């Protein structure tokens, strides 16, 4: 069963990789023209008119130069981040803003330097998606002090350091992961199944206050359901390799495990990687309950194959989320009043509604 499943997944992932070669970006160009002036118009009148028109557009800053949006990502690796970046560039460009993005590759000091360079380079707004908000808090505050608007996403540098923070309710996210597991348990074991019949392991990340809040909420919610026997709840690094190693250790320690919940997509991939490996004791991975967050073509293919049972997608549909972010950017650059906190949508994805999210 395991070998057959591996072949199915390999084929599905190959198709996905080929499909991923198709570019999804779109551009929109705009041009303006002015009516010819009458013979009585002077060169001075014409220059004044053109200056007034330029001032009225969103694409010009106080200096008359193009308004700049600098986007800072802790990572641009992987399909999801690249797609998100492309969409944000597309939306900002359509609004008339120059857009540049950079990745710090997970290094906080690099991102701090990138923020400082963006300020020095004349950025009008900085979009920050850090791996830890606290680590870039001072840099964001300094950018604000220099007159640059700051919009943080996912990780919050602090209310005093940003103009707007857009993120999720992490407690709600953790509870949503647990809710997916409970729903699966209803179908797999029945609502009246005995106490402790589902041997369960939890993996979470505690590197940031937000991730810790999600992890603790997931654990607390699952403990309310006595069907789940939580063998161990472990804080691990949010990476595929670390999750794969941790999963192997858990199976070595406990033998049978029926259900594994994680707080991130990379951890989910690590769990699955071990569960379908040749050395794994799992006979039929489709009978396990594996849950986490995020969605991309690789996770979607595992969901279609019955391996990944559910995932919570913060931000809902990526296209809608990015469009809302671009709207916030536009409002900030126009000097409009914007609430300090902007909540993202949250979606619980299973095989039943996966197609609604483009997979």
Query: Proportion of β residues?
Result: 15-25%
Structural class: alpha/beta
Number of strands: 12
> What form results from the Cα inertia axes?
elongated
Q: What is the rounded Rg? A: 24 Å
Low-confidence stretches: 6-64
Share of helical residues: 40-55%
Query: What is the spatial order of strands in the main beta sheet?
Result: 2-1-3-4-5-11
Order of helices and strands, N to C?
HHEHEHEHEEHEHEHEHEHEHEE
Spatial separation of the terminal alpha carbons:
25 Å
Mean pLDDT: 85
- Main sheet attributes: strand count, strand direction, barrel closure: 6 strands, parallel
Compute the number of helices: 11
Briefly characterize the structure.
With 359 residues, the protein is α/β, with parallel strands linked by helices.
Please give a handful of descriptors for the protein shown.
single chain, 359 residues, alpha/beta, six-stranded parallel sheet, six-stranded mixed sheet, 17% strand
Helix and strand topology:
Elements: H1 2-19, H2 43-55, E1 68-73, H3 79-94, E2 98-103, H4 108-120, E3 125-129, H5 137-145, E4 149-153, E5 164-167, H6 170-188, E6 198-204, H7 209-223, E7 228-235, H8 240-254, E8 259-262, H9 265-275, E9 289-293, H10 297-304, E10 310-314, H11 318-333, E11 341-343, E12 346-349
Parallel strand pairs: 1-2, 1-3, 3-4, 4-5, 5-11, 6-7, 6-8, 8-9, 9-10
Antiparallel strand pairs: 10-12
Helix pairs in contact: 1-10, 3-11, 4-5, 6-7, 8-9
